[in-house]
Amino acid sequence: MRITDQNYIPINSKLTGSVVTTNNANTIAKAKVKVASPQPGVESSFILEFYPEHSIASGGGILVVYPPQTLVGSSGRLTARVTVDGLHVDQDKLDISFDLSARSVTVRNIVQQSSAYKPTAGQKIEVTIQGLRTPYTSDMTDSFQMTTFNFVDNTFYYLIDKIASGLTINSKCNYPCRECADDQPSKCLSCYPEDPNIKNGRPFLQVDTCVEECAGNRFYDRKTNQCQLCDPTCLSCVDQASKCTSCGINPFLFLHQSRCLTECPDHYIEDPSANRCKPCSGNCLTCEGLPTSCTSCDVNSPYKYFFHESCIKECIPEISVLVGDKCVECDTKCKSCRGTPQTCTSCESHMKLDPFQHTCEDMCEAEVQIFSEETKRCELCASTCTKCAGSTTTCTACKPGFVLNLD
């Protein structure tokens, strides 16, 4: 047996081939942890400084256990790098293993020279772990744990120096804040931009919290990176406060060209079911009830004359005349007219035209008699007709046993 002191100097000189080991490592007094990013919930580099007090044999290493509040990032991949004051460490020769279930990183062969590493005061081992997430809250995490060890016979560890407390971290802000007010970790000042690697991303700052999307009565202002209120007339908006996308706040009920109006302008009709202004059809200046039901026409349009809920280029000859900006039908007693609706130029077949007054007088029974200009008498429809028009033989309805021939 060989008994040595902490620097492996033999206390006795008789060799037996046996080595005494211990699992009770010495607790060191000095260690530090730093995080590259202070923001919550993001992948970052964690830099751990460990100030060893005892020698590490050739092939020895360091074990790091990270706290449960620092989970592996969305990439699912961890990397580690080690530097040792006073030693050249070839990163390619390090033997690094990760145990995600144990939350541990084991680095062997940090001492790559044949002799033991004997640290002097102030020398440190620095382990950088990349791929862990920063904690999601401003609460302190559990402590990182670090332990140096010697590796014996390619299978066995024994522990040297350790630290298991004091290596705690926290984020300044609570997630989802990216930045927050001093001493107010949940009062967000900015949010994370949209990023598929960010868990449950909430990129929009609304008042003092971060949200997945702005509320219905707000829009995302790219200049301020905040959700700003829409104009009071808008139910919802986009890009700017006055660019409405929907309406419904009484009395501003109808959406038209990104504005909410109390009533629709010319050429449009209110659609209460959709809170929108719907275009009138055709050449209507205004319409009512239906888009196809014109109530007035545009005097600057070729279709400027109103007639029967439509806008037309000119009045239909003989059945209508122009009165102001409207085409008015001939009087009901006129078959055709000219100049005014009451100035008849022809009459229905049961009436007589007064050539001086230009009026039509009832002379015969409508539909069953025809007034004859030749005889100046009312004549009955032909015997096969029950009704006629124009002439006695022009049937509009037939007696039983006869069929109306429209040819």
Shape: rod-shaped
- What top-tier CATH class of the domain at 26-163 fits best? Mainly Beta
Trace the largest sheet across and list its strands: 1-10-9-4-7-6
| Mean pLDDT across residues | 88
Q: How many extended strands?
A: 36
Strand content: 35-45%
Q: If classified by CATH, what would the architecture of the domain at 26-163 be?
A: Sandwich
Largest sheet: 6 strands, mixed
List unreliable stretches of 5+ residues.
13-21
Q: CATH fold name of the domain at 26-163, please?
A: Immunoglobulin-like
Protein structure class: mainly beta
Number of helices: 0
Structure description:
This protein has 407 residues and is an all-beta fold. Among the domains are: 26-163, Sandwich (Immunoglobulin-like); 177-261, Hormone Receptor, Insulin-like Growth Factor Receptor 1, Chain A domain 2, CATH 2.10.220; 364-407, no CATH class. The chain has strands at 26-27, 31-35, 43-50, 61-65, 79-84, 95-99, 104-108, 125-133, 145-152, 156-163, 177-181, 184-191, 204-206, 209-211, 218-221, 226-229, 236-237, 244-246, 254-256, 259-261, 268-271, 276-279, 284-287, 294-297, 305-307, 310-312, 320-323, 326-329, 334-337, 344-347, 351-354, 359-362, 369-372, 377-380, 385-388, 395-398. The strands form 15 sheets. A 6-stranded mixed beta sheet has the order 1-10-9-4-7-6, with no helix packed on it. The protein has a 4-stranded antiparallel beta sheet with strand order 2-3-8-5, with no helix packed on it. Strands 11-12 form a two-stranded antiparallel sheet. The N and C termini lie far apart (133 Å). Mean pLDDT is 88; it is low at 13-21.
